[in-house]
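Workshop exercise sheet. Pairs work together: one partner reads the sequence aloud, the other fills in the structure field after running the prediction. Swap roles for the next sheet.
Pair: D.N. / O.F.
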Amino acid sequence: MKPMLCMIRRLVVIVFLVHQWSVPVEGKVLWGNIDDGWYTAKVSYTNYKTSYKARYTLDVAVKNDRVTVISFPDGGSLHTGYNNSGYTYGGGTLFFERNYSGDIIAASTTVDIYNLDGATLAIRIRIE
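Structure field:
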């Protein structure tokens, strides 16, 4: 009986936390449900191996509240899924900022790119 009580308590805590995240409040929350599609975003890039940093305005693709593609003006891109360019794409789940009315006012995330040469790139993305 005691293990069942512990499990019920955990479920109550989880339900409470999920409810708190989904209530529209000022600040960052998960589960924003913005439309899938392309967005123009402010992008900050850091290469931890070389300490190089830069800022850009780039187009990003969002699917199921996750940045799945970062598109560059020269036609190149970084994306989730299979690639033969020698990198692994991680992260991309959007966190949403809402006003007191519950409207989404911005979304942000970090995408980590792990290269075969050992370089880790952190790409911070903000959609406004």
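Discussion prompt: Residues 25-127 form one domain. What would you look at next?
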